[in-house]
Amino acid sequence: MAGILIALIGTGWVFMINVLSFIPLLIALHRFKKRLPKVEADNTKASPDVAKFLDGFRYIWQHREMAVILVMSFLICSLGMNFSVYLSAMTVHVFQGHADQYGFLISMMAIGSITGAMVTASRRSSPSFRFMIYVAAMFAVSCFLVAISTSFWAFAVLLILLGLSLQLFTTSTASYMQVTTEKRYRGRVMAVVLATALGSTALGAPLVGWIADFLGARWAIGMGSVTGVIAAGLGFWFLRKQAQAEPR
After folding, report:
1. Whose CA is closest to 166, among 121, 115, 129?
2. Distance between CA 229 and CA 232 in Å, rounded?
3. Residue 46 lies inside a defined structural domain of this protein
4. Residue 11 clears pLDDT 80, i.e. is over it
């Protein structure tokens, strides 16, 4: 929708519409806050088993499969989630397009993301560790196909697959962490997971931009394929190590 509006009325007006779209949300949050029950302050001393700030990191380190998933998430999100960088570079430098083409590409990727969210929500069972490895491999393949596509329309269609695999991985990671974490540590563990995903994306953005400038936009997307392969390989290595340790 934003891509279409940018082409019709301009970027500035789309920013203003985005500002106005927050007004109903702020009103809803304000009304919701009034309906929350008041909780009396507890002046008793905190029990020793209350999770502290760093307990989220300690909990993840004690559960090695979570630590592996966190590293996989860092690898994939650092380069793969910077689609705003490499898609803009592809639009301008490869396909010689403008804002409307860029908005169309973002929309195609969003179709895959929405589909991935619906697939994850429709699953009856929580995602397994092996499933996340397969999704990481799927992400690597989709990045490679997107990077080598020469036609604009082939590139746009393959972005659906890229958005699908990326959304499947991120939502499956969050679901796995929530389900397998003890309740009292869940908030801190999820904070670490979200900080890793968003922080790695911010850290990887300058690298993706540098690769797009000096090596080309296709190489910027291709590096996402490399990190996907590394993440999937790390997951397979951990599974194999676990299988070897089980008879012992």
Report:
1. 115
2. 5
3. no
4. yes
Residue 31 — pLDDT band, cuts 50, 70, 90?
A: confident
- Give per-residue pLDDT as tens, 148-173: 998 999 999 999 999 999 999 988 88
Tell me if 228 is assigned to some domain. Answer: yes
pLDDT at 39 over 70: no
Q: At what angle do helices 152-180 and 64-80 cross, to 10 degrees?
A: 160
pTM summary value: 0.80
| pLDDT mean over 7-30 | 90
Number of domains in the chain: 1
Confidence grade of residue 227 (pLDDT, cut at 50, 70, 90): very high
- Residues 6 or more apart whose CB falls under 8 angstroms from that of 134 comprise 232
Domain harbouring 219, CATH code = 1.20.1250.20
Contact (CB, 8 A) for 216 and 209:
no
What amino acid is encoded at 198 in this protein? L
pLDDT at 233: 94
Looking at the domain assignment, is residue 2 inside a domain? no
